[in-house]
Automatic annotation (TrEMBL):
It is found in: Secreted, Cell wall. It comes from Lujinxingia sediminis. Signal peptide: none annotated. This is Leucine-rich repeat domain-containing protein. Keywords: Cell wall, Glycoprotein, Secreted, Signal.
Length: 294
């Protein structure tokens, strides 16, 4: 099975609409079995859908249906959608092979603490989770072959989900996605990415208005493209004022783009280019501060 096809399932959009409040529930006990109890089998989906490259979790009861199989691997991506009434996604530590993970459009999920035995995935996608505050580090995850996306998670406090990840995407790879951050308004820096060394594809930071610096990227030494772009409509709300955190960066292969960050001094962006082993193919700096550097 082509891993790239599997990943499409992770990034599929799911329609959502208004729902009535529900009594909050926890993850079923069946999802907390030990790895030694898991069976040597491939988890099967339980929804009959035309597209079957994923295991789809739409209701809390679906977690039980999956975990009762006790399979130690899944060749299909996990996609958690809506899950009305579920307060936390936990467990699943008996699974050691999973191609991708998506958590999208949840109403009540506040915390994710799961899947700590998976060492690599093609990609992860966290999108429009209105109450999600904490994603605990995936304990064994070191490589994301394709990318990671965090989009419209207004309460997400940091990026510790990727605390053990060393590489995201592939430099010069066939597919572009790398790391995407869009409109996660509680993020003020890059805390949680301290071990990331390489980001292939695009490291895209878009409309992160409360982001103040790049602190947390202590180990980052190489990216393909770095793009920090804010909307033309309201750049005065952009708080980014420092590129501190990028001191170890030595290669930007294709492009450095910083647009609409009026509190960030242009000279600091130019100093970043100067510290690289060689300049990027393209440098675009638009609407930055012309205040001098110290």
């Amino acid at each position: 099975m082509d891993k790239r096809v599997v990943l499409i399932g992770v990034f599929i959009l799911a329609a959502c609409c208004g729902v009535e409040p529900a009594e909050l529930q926890g993850t079923p006990n069946s999802c907390f079995i030990e790895g030694s109890e898991a069976l040597d089998c491939d988890m099967e989906p339980f929804y009959e859908e035309e597209f079957d490259r994923r295991i789809l979790f739409k209701e809390v009861a679906d977690l039980d249906l999956a975990c009762e199989q006790k399979c130690k691997r899944s060749s299909r991506a996990f996609e958690f959608v809506t899950l009305h009434g579920l307060e936390a996604i936990q467990g699943f530590d008996f699974i050691n092979a999973l191609p991708g993970l998506g958590v999208m459009y949840t109403y009540d999920v506040e915390e994710i603490d799961a899947l700590h035995s998976v060492e690599s995935m093609v990609g992860v996608d966290f999108r429009e989770n209105v109450k999600l505050e904490i994603i605990k580090p995936f304990a064994s995850l070191e490589v994301l072959e394709y990318g990671a996306s965090f989009e419209d998670n207004p309460r997400l406090k940091d990026l510790r989900a990727l605390a053990n990840v060393r590489q995201i995407g592939e430099i010069g790879g066939e597919y572009e996605p790398g790391l995407k951050l869009l409109n996660n308004n509680s993020l003020v820096d890059m805390t949680g990415l301290e071990r990331v060394e390489v980001i292939g594809g695009r490291f895209q930071i878009r409309d992160q208005y409360n982001l103040e610096s790049m602190r947390g990227l202590d180990s980052l030494r190489e990216v393909e493209t770095l793009a920090i772009v804010n909307s033309d409509d309201d750049p005065e709300y952009v708080k980014l004022n420092s590129l501190a955190g990028l001191e170890s960066l030595r290669r930007i292969h294709k492009a450095l783009v910083i647009q609409n960050a009026p509190n960030l001094r242009r000279c600091e962006a130019e100093a970043l280019v100067a510290q690289l082993e060689e300049p990027p193919e393209e440098v675009i700096l638009v609407n930055l501060s012309d205040e001098p550097c110290d």
